[in-house]
Amino acid sequence: CIPDNKDIILETLSESLACASLVIATGGLGPTIDDLTKEAVAELMDCSLEYNETLANEILERFGKISSIENQATVPSKALLFPNTSGTAPGLAFIKGSSVL
After folding, report:
1. pTM here?
2. Using CA atoms, how far apart are residues 98 and 72, in angstroms rounded to an integer?
3. What is the pLDDT of residue 30?
4. What is the pLDDT of residue 26?
5. What string of H, E and C letters represents the secondary structure of the chain?
6. Distances (CA, A) of 94 to 21, 45, 52, 67, 99
7. pLDDT at position 67
8. What sign for the dihedral angle of Cα 68, 73, 75, 79?
9. Pairing of strands 80-82, 91-93
10. How far is CA 68 from CA 34, 65, 71, 93, in A?
11. pLDDT digits (tens, 9 = 90+) for 23-67
């Protein structure tokens, strides 16, 4: 468990990926707009955050218009998305070197 601090997230994930072939991480629980995990991972993977309209529409269909749709549907451009049939945030996967995050 680490603090929601972008520099600490970056350092911890970088160290973990250097030591392990598979790293599983989770950000904040619930549809928070202040979680820094997505931003840190996008920086670590050298990609931008992009709004995914398909994902936004899926969230809208399931939950109606909620305030966090734009945030939940903004994901790192290099992410492989895993559908979330229970909540709003999709699962994300990345390959970095010989490791998977």
Report:
1. 0.86
2. 28
3. 62
4. 87
5. CCCCCHHHHHHHHHHHHHHCCECCCCCCCCCCCCCCHHHHHHHHCCCCEEECHHHHHHHHHHHCCCCCHHHHCEEECCCEEECCCCCCCCEEECEECCEEC
6. 12, 8, 17, 27, 8
7. 82
8. positive
9. antiparallel
10. 11, 9, 5, 21
11. 999 876 666 667 789 899 999 999 999 999 999 999 999 988 888
Residues in the chain: 101
- Residue 96 pairs in a beta bridge with 99
5-28 confidence digits (pLDDT tens): 999 999 999 999 999 999 999 876
* Tokens found for residue 12: 């911890």
Q: Position of tokens 């928070």?
A: 32
User: CA of 55: how far to CAs of 23, 51, 87, in Å?
Assistant: 24, 9, 12
- From the number of C-beta atoms within 10 Å of its C-beta (0-12, 13-18, 19+), residue 86 rates as exposed
Dist. CA 93–CA 95, nearest whole Å: 7
